[in-house]
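Quick question, first post here. What does this chain look like in 3D?
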Amino acid sequence: MTIRIKRVYEPPTAEDGRRYLVDRVWPRGATKAMLRLDGWLKDVAPSAVLRRWFGHEPARWPEFRRRYFAELARHPETWQPLLAEAARGSLTLLFSARDTAHNNAAALRDYLLSQR
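> Answer (accepted):
Ran it through. Tokens below.
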């Protein structure tokens, strides 16, 4: 099972496999053609309240992950299709945050890997 994360502003590659945007908000300046998406899964993204609280502050990362994982646990219907997709082949979770280590796609990947 391969689950990658990638900024939406990086060009698509053959290794990406299926590509899903996992942000609640559409990325600035991006077009559907540019992203070559297989889907936009807004509902798997953190709630607006949690996203605003986190504010991409690395010091809040451990607590953000805990809260986000709790949200995901309450809504398995949002992430189970991604897990099934990853079992069939490569999967890339796309995000628009500048921080490539502390973002919802990185947390989601970790959560998905813990659920297999």
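The mean pLDDT is 95.
Residues 68 and 74 are 10 Å apart (CA to CA).
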